[in-house]
Amino acid sequence: MIFINEVHLLDSIKIKLQSWCPKRLLTRLIGWGADKQAGWLTQLAVKTFAHYYHVEMQSAKNPNLASYITFNDFFDRPFRTGIRPIIKDTNWLALPADGIISQLGRICDNQIVQAKGHNYSLEGLLAGNSILVELFRNGLFAVTYLAPYNYHRVHMPCDGVLTNMIYVPGDLFSVNPYTVAIMPNLFARNERVICVFNTAIGPMIQILVGATIVGSLEVVWAGTITPPHKGIIQHWTYPDAGEERAIILKKGVEMGRFKLGSTVINLFIAGSVKFSPLLNERSPTRIGEAFAVIQTASDIF
Fold first, then answer.
1. Phi/psi at 110 (nearest 5 deg)?
2. pTM
3. Which of 104, 275, 276, 289 shows a CA-CA span of 20 to 30 A to 13?
4. For this structure, is 235 an active site residue?
5. Is 276 one of the catalytic residues?
6. 192 pLDDT exceeds 90?
7. Cα(202)–Cα(132) distance, rounded to whole angstroms?
């Protein structure tokens, strides 16, 4: 019992340290520095980071560390063409990011599992948007964590027409596995960009979650969303398919990126898909591999 109490006390101290840390200032400073062409200092930062995190560069379009003139150029490096083939079967959705599955499964009414002993609500994650909450109630969710050594571009799991984008201001707590395990309501507290798509399987949401020292959240249709880190919820709507300036993204194409690591959350409506049986908590993920299969009538009844 004493040991358990000590563990809880240690967790409480670590949460408080993150709460007290000037996360936004730290994020701004690191983001500013990561965009600077600082010559030998940039090279030192790139090579130290690559060595410390064992970054695999052979998959990169440009594997030469010495060629990157800013840290961000290195960090959001693209893959070589063809290095991540996209699953061709039209019944299957493709994984959107390289990383690991933090959690996936069913949304129980409006409750999403964050970690053992911690749930958060759909209302909290979706910033109280009642229409979206009702659409995704009892649906499915998947959370993919991108470690510092991962490729940091996020791709589409299926063809989609963008209908809405919502920026939600919030904290910038770390999203590493340890913090996820101990920080209540983490994903409903952190800054995030919610992207809503119409797809062949109904509405689908892909959320980019901000975190400590994540210098930027970007999407391909609008560029940089943060910074600056705004203090109010912002909402954009987009034309339907067939209308002028409709934004249509194909399965496997890039939809956004992080500058420094974070997390992607996918939401699906009930009865739309079943996750690959190969995926579970802590499964490694690779862009383009099997994510979920479209449900048929025989699957449902």
1. -130, 20
2. 0.87
3. 104
4. no
5. no
6. yes
7. 12
State how far the alpha carbon of 89 is from the alpha carbons of 96, 160, 271, 285, 294, in Å. Answer: 16, 16, 19, 18, 11
> 213-251: per-residue pLDDT in tens?
555 789 999 998 887 767 899 999 999 998 999 999 999
Name residue, tokens 């992080």. Answer: 258
The active-site residue out of 76, 98, 216, 272 is 98
298 noted as active-site residue: no
- For the segment 53-104, what is each residue's pLDDT rounded down to a tens digit? 898 999 999 999 998 988 888 888 889 998 999 999 999 999 999 999 999 9
Among 263, 258, 155, which residue's Cα sits nearest to residue 215? 258
Q: Over pLDDT 70: what percentage of the chain?
A: 84
Residues 164, 236 contacting (CB under 8 angstroms): yes
What one-letter code names the amino acid at 18?
Q
Which of the following is catalytic: 102, 174, 262, 272?
Answer: 262
SS3 track for 265-287? EEEECCCCEEECCCCCCCCEECC
Q: In this model, does residue 145 exceed pLDDT 50?
A: yes
| Nearest-angstrom CA–CA distance, 119 and 7 | 20
> Could you tell me which residues come within 8 angstroms of residue 280 by beta carbon, excluding any fewer than 6 positions away?
101, 104
Choose, from 76, 102, 152, 155, the residue flagged as catalytic.
155
